[in-house]
């Protein structure tokens, strides 16, 4: 007991160090950029309306029931807004905290499986890879959802590991405890985004069971306990919802889930290999380090081999499921961040232990993606300063008008792409000379700082081209006693940034503004003749409704 306590105390400085890194990467400038349409603003608006109406039982959007999402993540955002005020910071804070919790979680799991070195590698790969870091600075549901699923699968793995030196009674007791913990986290995941959490967990367990010839060590009774645990978590919320609104919302929710599976919802279609490309490019540099991690390693014990298999099956199941799903959105496959960063950490750990070697299988993808990022960013910075040279070739009038925004760029902005190229080149030279730890540190620091720099300097400028003029108008009108609506395009921004109040009969007497996009103007004029144009800016057209 004392030895265990001492070991944990010795780990505290490492965990504090990781927590500090997470805080530095995820917390600063959460509120420096407006929330992005649709998802970020959608969830933040639901949280705002939850506070405004006092209805914490049901998710709403535009003060109407929103059956597409369960309430758990919205509750987190609403609590954040309650204490910090309605805004970007409060909307994104839950994911920033989730990011720090994720780093600590994977560190401790990695430490227990292998050693502290492995845990640190896994945590830093998660924090410094591109799209994972971006996710933890966003206001979307997936980071919290993914963490719950991962923990549910982790405790399912714990059931599959048996200590033969323990008594049968102790084994059964631990297995049931781990099953209940798995059920708890999968239940929380279901309350966060929906039953796809159960689907992914069951499919991963089934693949493990089949590939390992039935060695899952789960009996029918234990499966029943697991299902009952999930149901208990979900039913707590469902009972209140059914009592208030009947079972109609269940039909709506199921219909939405089926639509996502069978149709490219809201125009988000794509080819079967969409998520393969998204993950390979987005989870840089971890995605470039996993290719040798699938090789058999006789140095691993049963628990380590088993965990690697669970992570491999989770990666494959998630990729296949969301490749089949017709709706293709980048963050749908973000659960793969866990197995990808685990497998990358596994490879680096074996590299440090001199059980694997550095080869072209790591050099080629790392260097290729680095060159692609550097060229794309450098060319983009150069071209964006002279839009007149390429806008004649763009057919989209809305995009052309967006590019008319006055945004300041400088030669200094070229340093981000070129800096990444130089630093990764140095890291690859270190790797070739077998300075593996120094090379790894340079790769992680370079990637982490590249994403951090992009979030600080690049994304705020990009936002000025896309939605900034629109949201400036909405924030200005939020100070008036007025009504703002959008026409001929879908958006949640007018609800959140114009701070739409609870609808009332008094709304009829208020000033009424309408916003549309330049490419939807003809369609608007065909359907409306009660609007007086105020002005146009960067592709957005603003109207005031006139009395007929």
What can you tell me about this protein's structure?
This protein folds into 3 domains: 2-356, no CATH class; 361-466, no CATH class; 470-545. It has 21 helices and 6 strands. It has helices at residues 2-26, 39-53, 72-84, 88-113, 116-128, 130-135, 142-160, 168-192, 196-211, 220-245, 248-262, 274-282, 302-324, 337-352, 360-384, 397-402, 415-432, 436-466, 468-477, 493-497, 521-527; strands spanning 60-61, 64-65, 482-486, 511-517, 531-537, 540-545. The strands form 2 sheets. Strands 3-4-6-5 form a 4-stranded mixed sheet. Helix 4 runs antiparallel to helix 5 (116-128), helix 5 crosses helix 14 (337-352) and helix 5 (116-128) runs parallel beside helix 18 (436-466). It is globular and about 85 Å long.
Radius of gyration, in Å, reads 25 Å
**How many DSSP helices?**
21
N- to C-terminal separation? Answer: 81 Å
**What is the 3D shape?**
globular
Give the overall pLDDT as a whole number.
Answer: 87
Q: How many structurally independent domains?
A: 3
Record field, number of beta strands: 6
What helical percentage do the residues reach?
Answer: 55-70%
Characterize the largest beta sheet: strand count, sense, and whether it forms a barrel: 4 strands, mixed
> What amount of the residues lies in strands?
5-15%
Low-confidence stretches: none
| Strand arrangement across the biggest beta sheet | 3-4-6-5
Structural class: mainly alpha
Provide the succession of SSEs: HHEEHHHHHHHHHHHHHHHHHEHEHEE
